[in-house]
């Protein structure tokens, strides 16, 4: 974006904030009145992938409850929390919002369980590791807009790539990064499983989005688990509740206030040792008492079979150019540039982009072509 005719949204930013004029794009284009990161957010929310957030699992699947968090609600929580932190620290809220809204675009159906199954398939197929944050970047750069990609800033793409809240830190400090270094990290993530654990954002705004991902799900997942009667609040250790609070509201407020207190006027984000230790303990509690119980062994086996069946069927359909298959219809509307991808990569992209319902619908359709309706219904 060479012609900077936009009006900047912020005039009193921290000296550690990423300025609008620092925005870097892979493709030059004329600007309008929107600041660059504001423009990123617009492109993200109007993408096809954004609308699919509505029916993707956050943690719990196959639960008949209207108030359980879906991927869409989680993304909104991350955006709100991150913008709150950004406002207190005088950072660029447009960059924060864009990255927060786009951070989970590459997530698979059925949450992290689906991600694990797709990773197994991807590694077995020889096309590298599958990670949802890397897929989010790939989606924006190479899949959206019928395979032409969207022109999203380097800073937003980097914040999305480095957002993974699973890897909690006491201190979040950005690292200087060039376009080539960003691309090198992105490509390396497909070949080295350890790369994903070492990624650090190039902006303080990216650091905010990363910790906000963690803040957004810690307490909310507990409240969802209580609603589903998986745990009771009494099971959460008193030592954790004494530091962070009991409700999701209290947990969010405690962490945000602690973070701001220890980070104001500094080129990094910092948690107090006490709050950081409580976060680690709460994460461990959630993994043992919530995430490990979100799917029964039987349901995991069923989902693994669904992913395997979809992958093998679509691969065969692309090879035979089966006109009745949805994967062929998807392939045919994509750009010639995208069609140069391997069949394996195209199938992985397609499955990763599915909503939960569409994934099950496609599996049912495949099974009905092979078995009786009664067998399919019994199988699911």
Keywords:
single chain; mainly alpha; two-stranded antiparallel ribbon; 18 helices; Hypothetical protein af1432; 380 residues; 2 domains
Coarse structural class: mainly alpha
**Would you identify the regions where 5 or more consecutive residues have pLDDT less than 50?**
372-380
CATH level-two architecture of the largest domain: Orthogonal Bundle
Distance between the termini: 50 Å
In N-to-C order, the SSE pattern is: HHHHHHHEHHHHHEHHHHHH
The CATH homologous superfamily name of the largest domain equals Hypothetical protein af1432
- What can be said about the biggest beta sheet? 2 strands, antiparallel
Apparent shape: globular
Total number of helices: 18
Strand order of the largest sheet: 1-2
Question: What is the CATH class of the largest domain?
Answer: Mainly Alpha
Mean pLDDT: 90
- What's the total count of β strands? 2
Tally the structural domains: 2
As a percent range, the share of strand residues is: under 5%
Share of helical residues: 55-70%
Calculate Rg over CA atoms.
21 Å
Instruction: Please name the CATH topology of the largest domain.
Output: Hypothetical protein af1432
